[in-house]
């Protein structure tokens, strides 16, 4: 007789997931929480600023989750900060349509055990870039914060960042060098506000490296602007769509 999937879960967790304990929870803005996790298994991880982890936000032992293909069980979050002593921080931004991940982040508490995959992803700083261009909205600013901290002070930086209001700004490094635009209550419009600000941004004549993240259609529009209107090669753009209306799990 074969073993049911839920019965095999403990062995799967031990093999593929790291586990830590929530040490602190802090509300950074009205819609973003910093969650600090610590534990011996988190020491000396291979992590590059901008990479993400997949957090277990549901119960793998629940048969209903296996019936849905685990779609409500794992959620992807960028690592806000990490140190090799075993401390990892997430900064989770609320979404207009809250799902399992948003409910998990709203209820997480100090002392809670958290399991997640090892860091991965290609949205990382290219250190040989002539300069760095960051373009995205709220969901991109977590990755951008980590990447900006990883840059040397002499690195040239340009950015266009879209938020709802100024009160939604995360504490990003080099904030005075970044261009901020605000929707003021309007819904994201497939990158229209970002594109308007980006077209007005004075950049050096030669291409740098662009990190484009956030809503999928906005990412595509920004890449088209850089490659078709400014003549950048596609290899100079690193795109990471995090979400799009009506669709889950872009990873």
TrEMBL record:
GO molecular function, one term: oxidoreductase activity
Pfam name, any one: FAD_binding_9
Lineage: Bacteria, Bacillati, Actinomycetota, Actinomycetes, Micromonosporales
Organism, as annotated: Phytohabitans houttuyneae
Name listed for the protein in its UniProt record: Siderophore-interacting protein
Domain of life of the native organism: Bacteria
Residues of the FAD-binding FR-type domain: 15-126
């Amino acid at each position: 007789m074969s073993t049911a999937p839920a019965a095999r879960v403990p062995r799967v967790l031990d093999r593929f997931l790291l586990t830590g304990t929530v040490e602190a929870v802090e509300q950074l803005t009205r819609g973003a929480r910093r969650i600090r996790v610590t534990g011996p298994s988190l020491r000396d991880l291979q992590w590059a600023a901008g990479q993400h982890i997949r957090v277990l936000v549901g119960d793998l032992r629940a048969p209903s989750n296996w019936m849905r293909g685990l779609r409500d069980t794992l959620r992807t979050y960028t690592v806000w900060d990490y140190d090799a002593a075993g401390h990892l921080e997430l900064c989770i931004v609320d979404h207009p349509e809250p799902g399992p991940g948003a409910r998990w982040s709203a209820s997480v508490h100090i002392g809670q055990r958290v399991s997640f995959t090892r860091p991965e992803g290609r949205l990382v700083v290219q250190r040989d870039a002539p300069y760095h261009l960051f373009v995205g909205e709220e969901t991109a600013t977590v990755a951008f914060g980590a990447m900006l901290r990883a840059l040397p002070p002499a690195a040239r930086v340009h950015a266009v960042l879209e938020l709802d209001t100024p009160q939604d700004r995360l504490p990003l490094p080099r904030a005075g060098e970044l261009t901020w635009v605000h929707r003021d209550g309007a819904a994201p419009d497939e990158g229209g506000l970002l594109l308007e600000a980006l077209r007005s941004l004075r950049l050096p004549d030669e291409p740098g490296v662009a990190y484009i993240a956030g809503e999928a259609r906005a990412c595509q529009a920004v890449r088209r602007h850089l490659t078709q209107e400014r003549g950048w090669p596609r290899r100079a753009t690193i795109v990471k769509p995090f979400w799009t209306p009506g669709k889950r799990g872009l990873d």
